[in-house]
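One thing: could you explain this record?
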Amino acid sequence: MSNRDLTYFISDLHLGARYFSDPRQHEQRVCQWLRSIAPRCKRLYLLGDILDYWFEYHNVVPQGFTRFFGALAELADSGVEITWITGNHDIWIFNYLPREIGFRLINGPLEETIDGKRFFMAHGDGLGPVPFGERVMRSVFRNRILQRMFASIHPRWTVGLAYGWSASNRTKRTPRAVEPTPLLRWLDSPERPQADYFLFGHYHIMMDRREPYGRVIILGDWILNMSYAVFDGEELRLETLQI
C-alpha cells in the first residue's frame, strides 16, 4: 500500500547560477531534499526559475544539472506526478526534458483541484502592472521566430551571455527579495480567479497571508530561504529546510 499522501511546491532554485560559491553543493542539497520527500510525495509542483538558464536545442543537450535531472527522473519513475511551471529564467524548456524525465510542462498560470481544494499557481512574473521594458522583454523571449534565431547561434556565445546577464541583474551577484506589489494589486483586482490557495514564486520572499478571497503563499527560494510548501489534504504549510 502506498503511503504517498503529500503534495509539495517549490520555486526559484536557480540551479547553475554563477553567484553560488559551490554550485555542485547547491545541486546536491536540492537532490537530497527530493530524495527525502520521495516516500510520501504524491505530487511535486515546480513553480519556475528552477534553472537559472536553460535553452533546449533540437539535437544536443546543454551540459549541467545531471544530478538534479536524475533525482527528478527517480521521482517520476516511482509514480510521483511532477508539474513544472516555467518562470522567467527557464522559459526555454520545450519537449526534451518533459519527455525524457516524465513531467508535465506548463507555460503560464495553472488552476488545479488538489484533494478537493482549488489551487491557482504561477511563477508570478507578468501578473499585475508590468513596466513597458519588461513587457517588451517577455514578448521577445517568447517569440518563436526569435527563439529559432537564437538557437542558430553557437552555445559558446549564448550560454556565457545568458549567465552573465542573469548575474548582472542581481544585487551583489545574488538574488534579492523584491516586494510583490504588482502581484498583490493583481490579486486585489477583478482579474483574480476563484481559488482556495494562490501560490507563487519569483519574488524571493516567504509570504503566507490569509485574505478574504483565499490564502496567498509566496514560496521564497533556495538561495536566501531554503523554503517550500507542503499540502497534506487538509493543511498547507510553508516550511524551510532544516540544515
About this structure: The helical segments are 23-37, 66-77, 96-102, 132-141, 144-151, 155-168, 181-187. The CA atoms of residues 19 and 172 lie 9 Å apart. The mean pLDDT is 88. The first helix runs from residue 23 to 37.
